Amino acid sequence: MSDTHQVNDLISIEMEGDTALIRIDNPPVNATGQVVRQGLDEAVARLDADAAVKAIAIYGAGRTFVAGADIKEFGKPPQPPALPEVYDRIEACETPVVTVMHGTALGGGLELALATHARVGIDGLRVGLPEVALGLLPGAGGTQRLPRLTGIPFALDACLSGRHVPAQEALEAGVIDRLEAGEPRDVALKTAQDAASGVLKTRRTGDLEVTPDEAALRETEEKLRQTQPLLFSPHKIVECIRVASETPLAEGLKFERAAFMECMDTPQRAGLIHAFFGERAVSNIPEAKGEARPIDKVGIIGGGTMGSGIATACLLAGLPVRMVEVAQEGLDRGIATITGNIDGAVKRGKLPADKRDATLAMLEPSLQMEDLADVDLVVEAVFEDMDVKKEIFGKLDKICKPGAIMASNTSYLDVNEIAAATSRPADVLGLHFFSPAHVMRLLEIVVADKTAPDVVATGFALAKRLKKVGVRAGVCDGFIGNRILSHYGKEAAYLVLDGASPQQVDSALEGFGFAMGPHKVGDLAGLDIGWANRKRKADNRDPNERYAGAVADRICEQGWFGRKTGKGYYVYEGKDVRPNPDVAPIIERERQEAGITPREFTDQEIVDRYMTAMISEAARVVEDGIAKRPLDVDMVLLFGYGFPRFRGGPLHYADTIGAAELVRRIEGYAQEDPHYWQVPDILRRMAADGTTFADMNKGA
Ligand code: 3HC
Q1: pLDDT band for position 700 (50/70/90)?
Q2: 391 among known catalytic residues
Q3: CATH class belonging to 482-699
Q4: For the chain, N or C: smaller number of CB within 10 Å?
Q5: How far does residue 260's CA lie from ligand 1's centre (Å)?
Q6: Per-residue pLDDT tens digits for 391-405
Q7: pLDDT score of 699
Q8: Catalytic pick among 131, 380, 590, 617
Q9: pTM to 2 decimals?
Q10: What's the 71 CA to ligand 1 centre distance in angstroms?
Q11: 1, pLDDT greater than 60
Q12: How is the chain split into domains, by residue range?
C-alpha cells in the first residue's frame, strides 16, 4: 500500500513499505527554486529521522529530472535554504538516498544527484554541468563531487564544455551507477528497494578521494589562457577542480561557494543570462504563437551560397527541397555545394552517416520555376536586385498554389515593394538567413505591411524547425541587423580614415570580445557585397554625410574582395593571414585627399566609438519599431553578427554604460561630425528619466 502526502506545493513523499519516494514537481523543468529547496530539505530531514524508512529515492515529475537552479532567481537576494547546504545535509543522511534521473539532469539537478548515495539513469538521459554557459560554475558541489566520481579529466571537460553527456557515456565515466528503462516513479521504487536491500551499493561521494592529475590541470589552464582570455568563470572552474584534488570536501565546497559568488557578481554572468532568456523570449510574442501553415516541402530559387545553405538547413531538418536555377551550370554548382555541406554535417556529427544519402535524396533540382507549383513555401535567394526580385515574385504569383508562402531572402530590399509584385501580398514575407545558412542560427522574419498573421507564425515555426533563432523585424533598409551594421560599419571606416589602422581596429574589437574585427569580417563576407551596396545607393547619397566607403572602394577597384580573391585588408596564403601591405598607401592617399591629419586612437577609444555608434542605431531601430524590444536587437547581433555573447548584446551592454553617459559621449563626438553623431530621442528620454533598455524588455 502506498501513501502519498505533499510536503509543500512542489514536493511530495510517497511511502511504499519501508522505502520512500520524493517527487519533485515544478514544471516545466523542475528547477530548484526556493520552494523546491525548502521542500526537499524538509522531506529528507523527516525521512532520515524515521527509523522505519530504509531507503529514499528522489525523482522528477514531467518531461525531465531537474534542469538546474532556478535561473530567474539569479541576481536577486538569495532565499534560504541555499542549495549547497541542502545537498550537504542530503549527503550526510544516515539513510541511503538515491536519485533516479530522466530527460536532462543539468547543473544543480546533477549536483543533487552527485550528493546522493547512488545514481540511476533512465534511457535517453543526458547529464551536464552547463553553468559555464551562464558565466557561472557548478556552485552546489559539482566541481568537488564530480572529480571524486570520474577523475579530473572528465570533470574538467564536463564543467568547461557544459555539454550534455549521453547516458551511456555517463555510466562509463562513473557519473551514474546504473542505466535502466521505465517510468521514473517505477524505477525510483525499484532503486529504493535495491538500496534498502543492499543490491544497489550506496556510498557518500564526499568520502571518495580524487585521483590527482596535475598534468591535466596544467594543460587545461594553459589552453584556457590561449582560447578564453576574456571569460572569468572557466578559469575559476579549473581552480575549483584543483582544490578538489588537494583538500577535503568541506574545504573544497567553501572554496567553490566563494568562487561561485564571485562569478555571480560579474557582468559576464548578467550578459550570458540575458542571452539565455533572450534566445527564448524572441519567439514569446503573440504573432509567433498563432496557428502556422503546414510546411511539407520547400522551394528555393537560386543555388548560390545562400540558396544552397538554406536548402542544406531545410534538408538537415528533414524538409524536402526543390531547388530551381536558371542554367544547368548553376544547378550543378548548387548540388555540389549542398553535397559538400551535408558531408560536412556528417563529419561534424550533426547528421548520422547512414542518413546522408536519404537526406540528399530529398533534394530535387530543377530548371523550371513551374516545378514550384506544389511547394508550401518558396524562398527566393537570388542576388540583390529589386527588378529581378519583382520579376520572380510576379512569376511565383502565377505558379504557386493557393496558400503557398512566398519569401525573399533579401538582406536590404523593401519587402513591401517585392510583395506588391504579387496579387497576394498577405502571403509574402522576408526570411533573412545569414551565411552560411546551415550553420548561422539567426533568421530575421521580416514582416511587411500586408503579411498575414499565420504567415508570420509560419516563419517562427520554420525557425524552430530549423533550430534557428527567429527574430521579428519590420521593413526598412537592412531590417534590424544590416541597418545597424551599415551604421557602425561607417564608424570603423572613419576610425581608419582618421588615423587607426584596420588591424588596430580589428584587434581592439577582438579584445572587446568579437571573434573577428570588422575588416576581417568584411574580407570573409566578400568586400564586393558592400561595394555593390554602396554603388546601389550612390545616387541617393546624403551630401551632408561624410563618405565612409573611399578606402574600401579603392581596395575593391583592385579586384581585391577579401578571402575569396586571396587579398583584401589582409593577404591570405593558406593558413597564413597578414595585413595587406598595399592597403596602407591607399589609406594614406585617401587621408591626403580628404585633408585629414591622422591622429592616434587608444584601443579603448576605438571600442567606445564603435560601440556607441552601434548602440545609437540599435536604439533608433527600437524607437522606429523595426525591432519590437531591445532584446530582439540583442539576439540579432549575438546570433548573426558575432557580438560577444558574454556582453549580452549591444543594448544590454548599453545599460551597463547608462543612457546619460552615452548621450554625453555622442554629444562629444558630434563636435567633430554632427551629421553622423546624433543623439537618438529614445536615449535622451532614457537619460532624463533614468530608465534602461532592460525596463523596456520587462514592459514589453
Ligand atoms: N531555471 C529557470 N527556468 C528555466 C531553467 C532554469 N534552470 N531551464 C529552463 N527554464 C525555462 C526556460 O526559460 C523556458 O521557459 P519559457 O517556456 O517561459 O520560455 C522553459 O523552462 C523551457 O525551457 P526550454 O525552452 O529551453 O526547453 P527545452 O526543452 O528546449 O530545453 C533544457 C530544456 C535543456 C533544460 C534547457 O532549458 C536548458 O538548457 N536549461 C538551462 C539548464 C541550465 O543552465 N542549468 C544550470 C542552471 S545554473 C545552476 O544550476 C547553478 C548551480 O550550479 C548552483
Answers
A1: confident
A2: no
A3: mainly alpha
A4: N
A5: 19
A6: 999 999 999 999 999
A7: 78
A8: 131
A9: 0.94
A10: 7
A11: no
A12: 3-264, 296-477, 482-699
